[in-house]
Design a protein that fits this description.
single chain; about 425 residues; alpha/beta; Rossmann fold; Elongation Factor Tu (Ef-tu), domain 3; Ubiquitin-like (UB roll); six-stranded parallel β-sheet; 11 helices
Length: about 425
């Protein structure tokens, strides 16, 4: 990134001069953008016309949408594209009979299950709730990026996001679990906040920002947001509106590939990617709480840079999306597979598969070790948030790379975020 990008936002001596409320000009931007952006909406017209009935608020206080403990069948009551290129879409979910929905904390997610291409093999994925909890007693909003959007297999039913974009419409019923997750905002604190988001990683952060706006928070708040360009810029209008609702909110938008039609200082501020060094020069206090959400490489780079600059680990909160990839290749002898030399003598046995392997530092967790050796364990989020991969630990102990976001049963483990501490035997 050219250092000139930072000072050129308004010809100012420092970027902060271009980040006042007038720089983003929420009302003006909204008016200009609404004139040029044709948002595709489904379902809202039905709500307005009364085709989807409303429910008496008195019922909401005493009834719950749960079909059974932790499981909910919710109906799609509306959907709305959030980007000009239609790669990101919001789905609004409500109880079919209008019952109230379980509360959640800003930043949490719900686990979604869909049938998948193979009968009896449902696919589970976690999607962040992108609206404030204070506005979500009657319906949830999840915002999903179609991961197959630029693929030749854009309609793959094995891809949960593509399935939602192409097959889930108003009236569809979606099987979900109660909200969960540890990537949450401390709403009681008054410490200043710095949010970093990459692409669709804005969704849990948007829930946090909306909650802060609902509470009329006076906290100092910064958002550093990286996207490709205006066509793939989700929640453009809503982020502009937040600028007028939060008195101490400033945002810097980075476009990595701005088109000729993208307006510097209006649609975005910096061409390039989010980088820590110039940002830290803008932050004057020492007690910020940092929240990071984006692809794993984005998160890891920012976390490492923050820690090198002296930010304490307990001030950094992070959530990744997307599957990790392993460089470890499976062996061919399925009776006694030996991983590449890693200095580890720890043995892992997959009992039902009658397979023995050595633990390897070439993989991040037990789930990856199983996969690269030809096994296909059930899984969902790959980050300890959904519990879909929970498996019986018949013997031995494991260490977790992060705290699980779901309850883990006695004698079980989550292989997606665990590594063997001793020799272990798994019921797989």
């Amino acid at each position: 990134m050219n250092p000139g990008d930072i000072v050129s936002l308004a010809g100012a001596l420092a970027i902060t001069a271009a980040l006042t409320r007038g720089a983003y000009g929420a009302v003006g931007i909204l008016n200009r953008h609404i004139q040029t952006r044709k948002k595709i909406r489904f379902g809202f017209e039905k709500i307005r016309s009364g085709q989807i009935p409303t429910v008496s608020p008195q019922r909401h206080a005493i009834q719950s949408a749960e079909a059974s403990p932790g499981i909910m069948n919710l109906k799609v009551v509306a959907r709305e594209y959030e980007t000009l290129d239609r790669s990101i879409c919001s789905f609004y979910l409500a109880s079919p009979d209008g019952r109230s929905l379980p509360g959640f904390k800003p930043g949490q997610h719900i686990l979604i299950e869909h049938p998948g291409a193979q009968p009896g093999s449902p696919i589970k994925r976690c999607y962040s709730l992108s609206e404030a909890p204070e506005n979500s007693s009657l319906r949830y909003r999840i915002t999903i990026k179609n991961q197959m959007f630029e693929s030749s297999q854009a309609d793959s039913k094995d891809c949960c996001s593509a399935y939602f974009h192409n097959h889930v419409d108003v009236g569809s019923v979606v099987r979900t679990q109660r909200p969960g997750g540890n990537f949450t905002l401390d709403s009681q604190s008054e410490r200043p906040l710095v949010f970093f988001a990459g692409g669709s990683g804005i969704t849990p952060i948007l829930s946090m920002l909306n909650s802060l706006a609902t509470r009329r928070s006076q906290r100092e708040i910064w958002l550093f947001y990286g996207v490709r360009n205006q066509k793939s810029h989700p929640m453009y209008n809503q982020l502009g509106l937040l600028q007028s609702m939060l008195v101490n909110f400033r945002q810097v938008v980075y476009y990595s590939r701005p088109a000729a039609s993208c307006r510097r200082g209006v649609d975005f501020h910096v061409e390039g990617r989010v980088e820590i060094e110039p940002i830290l020069r803008m932050l004057k206090r020492r007690d910020y709480l940092f929240y990071i959400c984006g692809p794993e490489a984005f998160n890891g780079s920012l976390r490492d840079d923050l820690q090198r600059s002296g930010v304490p680990e307990n001030a950094i909160h992070m959530e990744s999306f997307g599957n990790r990839k392993s460089n470890f290749q499976p062996q061919t002898n399925k009776q006694e597979l030996i991983s590449p030399s890693s200095g580890s003598k720890i043995k892992v046995r997959f009992a039902r598969s009658k397979m023995n392997v050595n633990w390897s530092s070439h993989v991040n967790n037990i789930l990856e070790l199983a996969e690269v050796n030809g096994l296909s364990p059930n899984h969902g989020c790959r980050s300890g948030q959904c519990g879909a991969c929970q498996i019986k630990l018949k013997s031995g102990t494991v260490d977790y790379t992060q705290n699980p976001s779901v309850a883990v049963g006695k004698g079980s483990c989550l292989p997606c975020i665990s590594r063997p501490k001793t020799d272990i035997v798994l019921d797989l």
